Amino acid sequence: MNEEINRFSMDYFRLEGRVAIVTGGNQGLGMAYAAAFAKAGADLYIPHFAENVDEIKAIVEAEGRKVAFLQGDLADSEYVDRVVEDCIDTYGRIDILVNNAGMSRFGAFEEYRDEDYRACMELNLNACYFLGRKVGLKMAEQGSGKIINIASALSFTSDKHCPPYTIAKHGILGLTKVLANELGSKNVQANALAPGFLATEVNAELRADEKFYNKITDRISLGRWGRLDDLMGSAVFLASQASDYVNGWTLNVDGGFAATV
């Protein structure tokens, strides 16, 4: 027992020599995950849809790490194949995958358009399955790997005007368990990270709605919306050796939102 205790060190949380794919890692929460991994020592591969990659490139390189990019649409199966192939061609391996890229299209349930439903489901759930499966099988060949699927507060509840996002984020929990079950014997761990309500540029208009802002804040037992750095340590934990015996689980980073009526 003493040998096992003595073996543990803070190096369990380091990511030196690891390669991490973070989809949509050039903006928003994805940028926070990518930056956290770079600070912990990993090199990055970032599939992205929006063009601007300058900020995350500067952040990663300032940490002395490498970063590569490939622009495209994860709803395109050929692009998903290219992501996996190009990352391996670039770095020789894939150690971490964060299925972060997603989208929302809001609308009344009675009028919600079929094409918006399909587009949201394709990116928010189906792309996570196809990329997770392809990367997971590569990790299985390596004998190790970490898959982190980004869930949501809406993985456990529902809100109006975003039906496909809610459905997809519930599905992410099932997908995580499937990947954990299918790949665990190959030393590949799959877990989900569920951010709560974070104050970002994307939701500035929502937070400006005093009624909505107070409704959410009153349910958060810590009494505040989250910050990007509130997520970063949790992401590093799930990507690191420190979580080697955590598999098929969902880590809520929500300030207590899910624990409050």
Written overview of the protein:
Helices cover 46% and strands 14% of the residues. The mean pLDDT is 96. By secondary structure, the protein is α/β, with parallel strands linked by helices. The chain has a single domain (9-259), classed as NAD(P)-binding Rossmann-like Domain (Rossmann fold, 3-Layer(aba) Sandwich), CATH 3.40.50.720. The chain is globular.
Summed up, the domain count is 1
Strand content: 5-15%
Mean pLDDT, as a whole number? 96
Radius of gyration: 18 Å
Query: CATH topology, what is it called?
Result: Rossmann fold
Task: Write the element-wise H/E pattern from the N-terminal end onward.
Answer: HEHEHEHEHEHEHHHE
| Helix/strand class | alpha/beta
End-to-end Cα distance: 42 Å
CATH architecture: 3-Layer(aba) Sandwich
**CATH level 1 class label:** Alpha Beta
Major sheet size, sense and barrel closure: 7 strands, parallel
Number of helices: 9
Helical content band: 40-55%
What is the strand tally? 7
Instruction: Give the spatial strand order of the biggest sheet.
Output: 3-2-1-4-5-6-7
Task: Lay out the secondary structure.
Blueprint: H1 2-7, E1 19-22, H2 28-39, E2 43-48, H3 54-62, E3 67-71, H4 77-91, E4 96-99, H5 114-142, E5 145-150, H6 163-183, E6 188-195, H7 204-208, H8 210-219, H9 228-239, E7 250-253
Parallel strand pairs: 1-2, 1-4, 2-3, 4-5, 5-6, 6-7
Helix pairs in contact: 2-3, 2-9, 4-5, 5-6
